[in-house]
Amino acid sequence: MGTFVSKILWSTEQVWEAKFREAGKRYEKPILVLYGGLTPSACGMGAAVMGPFYCPTDRKIYLDTSFFDELTRRYRAPGNFAQAYVIAHEVGHHVQALLGIEKRVSDAQSNTTERDANQLNVRLELQADCLAGIWASWLRQLPGVMEPGDIEAALRATQALGDDIIQKQTTGTVVLDSFTHGSGDQRARWFKRGLDTGRLQQCDTFGAPEL
After folding, report:
1. Which of 115, 162, 206, 211 is deepest in the core (most CB within 10 A)?
2. Is the pLDDT of residue 6 over 80?
3. In a 10 Å sphere around its CB, with 0-12 CB exposed, 13-18 middle and 19+ buried, how is residue 163 labelled?
4. d(CA 169, CA 146)
5. Residue 137, CB half-sphere, CA atoms under 13 Å: how many?
6. Cα–Cα distance measured from residue 185 to residue 187, given in angstroms and rounded to the nearest whole number
7. Model confidence pLDDT, tens digit, residues 52-61
8. How many CB atoms lie within 10 A of CB 84?
9. How far lies 34's CA from each of 24, 88, 117, 129, 135, in Å?
10. Alpha-carbon dihedral sign for residues 183, 196, 143, 32
11. CA distance linking residue 115 with residue 113, whole number of Å
12. What is the pTM of this model?
């Protein structure tokens, strides 16, 4: 797993170093931590049940080694590219932290209701999906890198990790106000937007009237 994860992380670095350079900025690489079960982080104790997460305080991505198996078994989203999308999504959160987006959202969430805080988080997560789509757009331009079915595998993962799908699986009931990541359709839509455009400006979920 370590070699695969390193390759995906390297590919995200190539994309975002170029994008930041175009904008006259410097891209700082994140650190990816593989762990099993529990791990300390600057954002508190990380646990496998949380799934992969990014901590803006220490600029690290945390990935439990069992998650990819769960992605196949529980979420029925198999394939290397589905796994790669998950990493690219967390890197998207790192990009948001570097651009100051994460802090603005966090500050706004601390001064609003739980419902509105959840809605802000949905926009943050959908933007990270769009940023993952930009990474996939870059890969698609490289000859011989992507295989037939890779994009479909990523889209299956975005759908499977939607709040509506997960809530149906766990409780049988969908509660829109409790969404924190967006529906499967929304996640797929924003990933595809980044994929189709390859442009950071097209990932403004906070300015979008509809998600």
Report:
1. 162
2. yes
3. buried
4. 31
5. 21
6. 6
7. 999 999 999 9
8. 26
9. 32, 15, 29, 21, 21
10. negative
11. 5
12. 0.96
